[in-house]
Write a structure and sequence with these properties.
Layout (H helix, E strand, L loop, with lengths): L1 H20 L3 H29 L1 H21 L3 H29 L2 H32 L3 H5 L1 H15 L14 H24 L4 H21 L15 H31 L4 H7 L1 H21 L2 H18 L8 H28 L6 H41 L7 H11 L12 H37 L18
Helix pairs in contact: 1-2, 1-4, 1-5, 2-3, 2-4, 2-8, 2-15, 3-4, 3-7, 4-15, 5-11, 5-12, 5-14, 8-9, 8-15, 10-13, 10-14, 10-15, 10-17, 12-14, 13-14, 13-17, 14-15, 15-16, 15-17
């Protein structure tokens, strides 16, 4: 819950942090980017640590470190300290996320694993979608520090309960050594990939720096794959990917995250900047999405146990596709009732995918690699989220750049210089009307109409792209199957 919550809750706190600490916009971006970079780069290695030393130990260390880093952020008086401790948060979060899945896999027998993962998915989905609501309440009624301090008591409770309840499960043939060159190559490749995705909207997709980092990522992954065939105990045995179902599960998780995180990114701007809602109101309007994920995840677990993953996964991605198509039809005056239909349908579709794809990845991996499989699942989700935000952000920026000048001129507004048009375009991409101080009310209203209409056209195109991604995912879902190794779970010895 803490890791998923901190992925979205901080967005609401960023403006307050920027004002209080006198930070630049680039500094504030690092509050989010530092966290996601550390998380994405470390997940698979952290999963390997769990496989080697036991998931209970890595989970408890992760919980303790995450809570301590959160408290340190709340006590920080400089933006440099906030960013540093956010990176530490990401590193400790990477320890506990795959360990949690490894513990579930080892504890529950095959017939109960999907229900367990369903409850896990419910917590992840509710925390991700509920972050903006809780963040809005805390920032508005307490202060930005409370967004981080809230993790301290949660972490203490998790640590105490973990020490009392959790059993340490070790696979008999768990890895005994570390593939340090493999860790270095994979971490470097992941860093270059995620960094390129984070910076692409600012640099531009055609910029040499973007392509240099993408090329470095491809080279890093190629060298990593080559090295893994030569080392005795590889970080990720490439034989894992001989399982078509596991590979399909990883691809499905990436595609789901592209549609979900990319789509949600624009919806928050739409609700706050186009409809003029407060952060709390915007969060409340997303309750149908949160609610359907909370209700749908355990139900999806039961359904997948009964039917297998293919039909629920394909149906879930079809529901996501329909929801994203529906979101492409939103207008500046769309009612809350209509919005709620599409948000609820999105939550209903995401639930079986979150649960099913996770079970397909973790259940099709050998028991001794359950931590690595959990890291793969989480890394796929992080990469998909970064990819969705970057690609759909690029689609939005391109559409706004191509339409704004003509829409501005068509409304009879004074012509803008190229630099003014660039500044206006940046504002419109997040739904903000670029109205200068002292602008007459009638002209300000026209500018707002142009800005919102142009934003809507960009969001509509981005939603259609997300819809297309979800349609592709429907076909990928048919390549999945029930975890071939899930039965090994409940038979592992306790230490």
């Amino acid at each position: 819950m803490m890791v998923a919550l901190d992925g979205t809750i901080v967005a609401i706190a960023n403006p307050a942090i920027q004002k209080d600490l006198g930070a630049s916009f680039a500094d504030v971006q690092w509050i989010t980017n530092g966290y996601f970079l550390a998380l994405a780069v470390s997940l698979i290695t952290a999963g390997k640590l769990g496989d080697r030393f036991g998931h209970r130990q890595t989970f408890l260390i992760g919980v303790t470190g995450f809570a301590a880093a959160s408290g340190a952020i709340g006590l920080s008086s400089s933006i440099a300290a906030v960013v540093t401790f956010r990176v530490l948060q990401g590193l400790f979060g990477a320890l506990l996320m795959p360990a949690a899945l490894g513990l579930l896999r080892a504890t529950f027998p095959a017939e109960k694993l999907n229900m367990a993962i369903g409850i896990w998915g419910m917590v992840i989905g509710a925390s991700t979608a509920g972050g903006p609501i809780l963040g809005g309440v805390l920032v508005e009624h307490v202060n930005w520090q409370s967004v981080f301090f809230i993790n301290v008591p949660v972490g203490i409770i998790a640590l105490v309960l973990g020490l009392v309840i959790l059993l340490d499960h070790r696979a008999e043939n768990a890895p005994r050594s570390f593939d340090l060159p493999g860790i270095a190559l994979l971490s470097g490749a992941m860093f270059c990939l995620v960094w390129a995705l984070i910076k692409a909207p600012a640099w531009g997709w055609g910029d040499g720096k973007t392509w240099a980092f993408l090329a470095a990522a491809v080279l890093g992954f190629a060298l990593f794959a080559f090295w893994e065939t030569k080392v005795k105990e590889p970080l990720i045995p490439l034989g894992l990917f001989r399982s078509v179902a596991l590979s399909a599960g990883v691809v499905l998780m990436v595609l789901m995250a592209i549609a979900f995180m990319g789509g949600l990114f624009f919806v928050t701007f739409y609700l706050q900047n186009v409809h003029g809602m407060s952060p709390i109101d915007a969060g409340l309007h997303l309750l149908p999405l949160t609610g359907m994920m909370i209700v749908g995840s355990p139900l999806a677990g039961a359904l997948i146990t009964k039917l297998g993953p293919r039909i629920p996964l394909a149906g879930g991605m079809a529901s996501v596709a329909i929801a994203m198509y529906g979101m492409s039809t939103l207008e500046t005056d769309t009612s809350s009732a209509v919005m709620s239909i599409w948000f609820a349908l999105l939550g209903l579709g995401l639930a079986p995918v979150m649960v099913g794809a996770t079970e397909v990845i973790v259940g099709n991996a050998p028991m001794e690699l359950s931590g690595v499989a959990g890291g793969l699942q989480q890394a796929a989700m992080q990469i998909g989220g970064s990819l969705g935000t970057a690609v759909l952000g690029g689609v939005m920026a391109s559409k706004v750049d191509s339409d704004l000048a003509a829409n501005w001129k068509g409304a009879g507004l004074p012509e803008l210089t190229p630099s003014q048009l660039d500044q206006a375009s940046e504002a419109v991409q997040v739904g903000v009307a670029p109205v200068a101080k002292g602008t007459p009310e009638a002209i300000a209203a026209k500018i707002a109409d142009v800005a919102h209409d142009t934003f809507i056209s960009g969001m509509s195109l981005a939603s259609l792209v997300a819809c297309g991604v979800a349609v592709v995912a429907v076909f990928v879902a048919f390549l999945t199957k029930r975890g071939a190794n899930a039965d090994a779970g409940a038979g592992v010895g306790h230490i």
